[in-house]
Amino acid sequence: MATKIYAALLRGVNVGGSRKVPMARLRALLEGLGLTGVTTYLQSGNVVFGADRGDEDSLAAELATALEQEFGFGVDLLVRDHAYLRAVAEACPFPAAALEGRQLHVTYFSGPVDAARFAALDQAGFLPEEFRLGDRVLYLYAPDGLGRSRLGEALGRPALTKGLIATSRNWNTVSKLVELTETPGAGR
Q1: What domains, with CATH codes, occur in the chain?
Q2: Which of 2, 13, 35, 41 qualifies as a cystine partner to 45, CB 3.0-4.6 A?
């Protein structure tokens, strides 16, 4: 099997002083698993690597087990390949090039999401903030940023993500992960 390039998106690490996952240890852990071109981006749990085995789900399970053994706590994570990450960026329903990275966010889900899951939200009540669904993703336009977003807060309610792993990235990170998975080892 040829080497394929992936990004692992760890959820809820290195936030508020808890659940620490130092990036150097994370890189060493993945390299120890035989993964290649391991590169981390920021401190928020983004790691790019090459693998000549498995698929997104099996690699996610392998990484989750290794992370729990190494750090002593469970970490929800998603693994996505370059083609998927690029397709998500290209399918953005908002004018990404005209917006600041902090105004546009993507929430990646572990499985499909449909409009019925979000039907109880009165989208008109949150304007000018908006969201759209895509292939296992939700795109959120929050003109004042996520920290001030009432819609972002509403979308983060556990009932809306029940049964799924969900993790969000701002548009700058979305774009950078596409770039890093295109050229493995470039961001180290």
Answers
A1: 4-84 (3.30.70.1280), 87-175 (3.30.70)
A2: 13
Strand pairing report for 104-109 and 166-170: antiparallel
Distance CA 111, CA 166 (A): 9
Length of the chain: 188
Kindly indicate the confidence band of residue 188, based on its pLDDT and cuts at 50, 70 and 90: very low
What is the average pLDDT value for the chain, to the nearest integer?
91
Residue 15 forms beta bridges with which residues? 18
Structure tokens at 78: 């998603």
Q: Which amino acid is at 89?
A: A
Question: Is residue 45 left, alpha or beta, with left meaning phi > 0 and alpha meaning psi from -120 to 50?
Answer: left
Are 187 and 178 within 8 A, CB to CB? no
pLDDT category of residue 158 using cuts at 50, 70 and 90: confident
